[in-house]
Design a protein that fits this description.
The protein has 333 residues and is of the alpha/beta class. Helices cover 29% and strands 25% of the residues. The strands form three sheets. The chain has a seven-stranded mixed β-sheet, with helices on both faces. It has a five-stranded parallel β-sheet with strand order 1-4-5-6-7, sandwiched between helices. The chain has a two-stranded antiparallel sheet with strand order 2-3.
């Protein structure tokens, strides 16, 4: 087995390799003077089980770089090529919702398969049905495993789960059932790309601590509207557990100036160095991805990494150091 990382989020690739007790593989990724990308594996991968770690977040060169890595691995006679995509970009363009528009997530799936990948490993697709765009094995991890591990160790009292829109209802219901609490739904109306107005709240949050759960936070415009509505309805502390921190535009400023007590996100995307976070805290996905990679390599089921039952004896996927650091953030009722 060999683990390689592209340049989009090399620190995560290093953490995943470390969890597996392996060195990150040597691959040279260069830019020619005209900007074109060149990839060369600097070690023998003939017949090996190769895992390529690369989120396909913007810029689009991250996707192109992954495609070229796959092609180089294929031409180097790798035995099996698995694309480990912590964040699957373009997942929000999964259907034809207007005249003369593209279904870009399908296009990305076609490109990856045409390049020669044999398997996909990713986390919390915005639209799970994207799995159907692929004709190869597809493993889909859930960040809820990490967040539930965190809240099991450090519970939030008097809690209500919040679905920030109707599309998040299934996820909110899962958290509520697992944590044996109630959930509410925010009725949201989109006024344009990255713009929405929170109209109604289905449920009661008065006097409750709230946990907003979702898969992506992008500009945080709709999140801000949800927070304002929850406060108007009399909730106490507001927490967020969101998988992918895209954090474009004014997102960081909006979150840091909001009434949120704390937001937990995953390290599926690189964090811009200019961002200074006080309320945003990252959970590492390395142990979860490392566990999945080991099981894929050994041809074992990855179902142990899902939360299908209340097995309190399961191994935590959150580092103990992170659990300790984050414990002081959650206040008791």
């Amino acid at each position: 087995m060999k683990i390689f990382s592209g340049t989009a989020h090399r620190p995560l690739g290093e953490r995943i390799a470390a969890c597996l007790g392996l060195p990150l593989g040597e691959v040279k990724i260069s830019r020619f003077s005209d900007g074109e990308i060149g990839v060369q594996f600097e070690e023998n991968i003939r017949g090996r089980d190769v895992f390529l770690v690369q989120p396909t977040c913007p810029p689009a060169e991250n996707l192109l770089e992954l495609l070229i890595m796959v092609d180089a691995a294929k031409r180097a006679s790798a035995g099996r090529i698995t694309a480990v995509i912590p964040y699957y970009g373009y997942a929000r363009q999964d259907r034809k919702d207007g005249p003369r528009v593209a279904i870009t997530s399908r296009l990305v799936a076609d490109l990856l398969q045409a390049a020669g990948i044999h398997r996909i490993l990713t986390m919390d697709l915005h639209a799970p049905q994207i799995q159907g765009f692929f004709n190869i094995p597809f493993d889909h991890l859930m960040a809820s495993r990490l967040f539930i591990d965190l809240f099991t160790m450090h519970s939030i009292e008097n809690l209500t789960i919040v679905a920030p829109d109707v599309g998040s209802t299934k996820l909110a219901r899962f958290y509520a059932n697992y944590m044996k609490t109630d959930f509410v739904i925010v009725d949201k109306y989109r006024t344009g790309p990255n713009q929405a107005v929170a109209l109604n709240l289905i449920g009661d949050v008065k006097g409750k601590n709230c946990l907003i759960v979702d898969d992506i936070v992008d500009t945080a415009g709709t999140l801000s509207a949800t927070i304002a509505m929850l406060k108007e309805r009399g909730c106490k502390d507001i927490y967020c557990a969101i998988t992918h921190p895209v954090l474009s535009g004014q997102a960081v400023d909006r979150i840091e100036s909001s009434a949120i007590t704390a937001m937990w996100v995953c390290d599926t995307l690189p964090t811009p160095r200019e961002h200074q976070f006080n309320k945003i805290h990252k959970l590492s996905t390395a142990k979860l991805f490392g566990g999945a990679i080991r099981r894929i390599h050994e041809e074992e089921s990855i179902s142990h990494l899902f939360l299908d039952d209340h097995d309190e004896s399961r191994e935590s996927m959150v580092d103990s150091a992170q659990l300790e650091m984050l414990s002081g953030i959650i206040s008791s009722d």
